[in-house]
Amino acid sequence: MNTITMIAAAAQNNALGRNNDLLWHLPDDFKRFKKLTIGHKIIMGRKTFESFPKPLPKRTHIIITRDTAYTVPYDDCVVVHSLEDALQLVSDEDAFIIGGGEIYKQGEVFADVIELTRVHGTFEADTFFPEIDSDRWALIAEEHHPKDEKHHYAFTYLTYTRIGKPLKI
What sequence ranges are listed for the domain DHFR (predicted)? Predict the structure, then answer.
């Protein structure tokens, strides 16, 4: 069985980004994202994909867009036109939903795990992570990282599992 994990970094007000860009620079969070997602398929909206300078190495990118003419010139990228189409491509393997805001909203009902980096601050944003419903999600792990010379904000890694659905990791 496969595990669908939503992975994100969101501020205390659930802010994710603004103008298709991140609101903070957290090198340790980037390392964790890479460690967790490398070798897996990553599902994202078109705007999230276009926010990267190039595809992330050693991951298959599944890009969701309503634009039926949209193409990308990379072998490690697949274009689909709905989240359901994306999920069919990962029906027998672990995969990560990596954004943006609308894809997270749609993906929450399909996810088994949420790996959330909670950035300690509030930010002006145009994209937000959905509110985590404590009736549906159980916090099973947290690890705090204080502000330091490489990180302008303190943050906490939070791992949630869906309540009532057996964990398949």
Answer: 3-162
- Give the CA distances from residue 88 to residues 13, 51, 55, 60, in Å, rounded to whole numbers and listed in that order: 32, 25, 21, 14
Please check whether residue 140 lies inside any domain of the structure: yes
**98-110: per-residue pLDDT in tens?**
999 999 999 999 9
Domain ranges, residue 44: 4-162
pLDDT digits (tens, 9 = 90+) for 138-159: 999 999 999 999 999 999 999 9
Domain assignment of residue 167, yes or no: no
Has residue 75 been placed in a domain? yes
* CATH number of the domain to which 111 belongs: 3.40.430.10
- Give the tens place of pLDDT for each residue, 46-59: 999 999 999 999 99
Residue 137 in any domain: the answer is yes
pTM of this structure: 0.94
The total of structural domains in the chain comes to 1
